[in-house]
Amino acid sequence: MLILLLILAPFGTGLIINRYMDEENRSLGVTYVAGFLTLLASFQLIAVPVVFMDPWGFETVVDIFTVVTTLFTGMGIIVTMHYWRRVGKIFHKQPRWMERSRLEQVQWILVFVLIGLQLFMAITHASFDGDDAFYVVQSVITDETNTLYRILPYTGGSTRLDMRHAMAVFPLWIAYIARMTDIHATIISHTVLPVFLIPLTYTIYYEIGKKLFKEKAEQLPSYMIFVCLLQIFGNVSVYNNATFLLMRTWQGKSMLANVVIPGIFMILLWLFEGEPEKRSQRGGMWFLLFMINIAAAMMSTASVFLNSFLIAVMAVVFSLQEKNVKIMLKMAICCIPCVVYALLYVLL
Amino acid sequence: MRDILEIFQGFTGSGFFTILYLLTLLYLWTAEKNPTFRSIFVYGASIIQILFFLPVFFYGYQLLDKGTYYRILWILPMTITIAYATVKILGRYPIGSIVIGAVMIVVCGQCVYNNVYISPAENVYHIPQEAIDVCDIIMPEENEERVKGVFPDDLIHFVRQYTDRINMAYGRDYLAPDWIYGDHPIRKVMNQEEIRISELVRLATEEKCQYIILEKKKKIVGDFERLKVFKIGETTNYDIYRNYQVDIENIK
Question: Is the reported ipTM for this assembly greater than 0.85?
Answer without folding.
Answer: yes
